[in-house]
Write a structure and sequence with these properties.
Elements (H helix, E strand, L loop, with lengths): L1 H22 L4 H17 L1 H9 L6 E2 L2 E7 L4 E4 L21 H12 L1 E9 L6 E11 L2 E8 L2
Antiparallel strand pairs: 1-2, 2-3, 2-6, 4-5, 5-6
Protein name: Cache domain-containing protein
Subcellular location: Cell membrane
Keywords: Cell membrane, Membrane, Signal, Transmembrane, Transmembrane helix
Amino acid sequence: MKNTVRIAFVLLSLLGGASVQAEDFATAKDAEAIVGKAAKALAADHEGTLKQVTGKDAKWVHGDLYVVVYDLSGKCLAHGQNEKQVGKDLIDLADADGKEFIKERMQLAQAKGKFWQDYKFTDPVTKKVLPKSAYCELAGKDVVCAGIYKR
């Protein structure tokens, strides 16, 4: 009986720890909130916000969630995870399945304004290619996005 209680306690402890870790990952609600906030900030101070995003300001990076801003041609204007992308034309960038997700993203932005998009991308934490969903909004002439990994 004592062993059963111990085993149950250990299992509950492990499961509790897993749920805490899962809470460290961004949610769809988090992505929508940070994109909306970034869109408003860009309208108020375009250049300053682009610099903050690329500078990994805590307002724009939360754990595995970060903001990316493009112009409508697919040029990266700011990137909260990889500053080397800034200034690059990413329109032909394809995911692991060959999907040109930036091209599709620009088309969706012009057609819908606000949308979710699925693709695959390398998780900076695990270094594995994982399914990812990005929430994006057209903000003036910019497309603002933040994505969540489907773990």
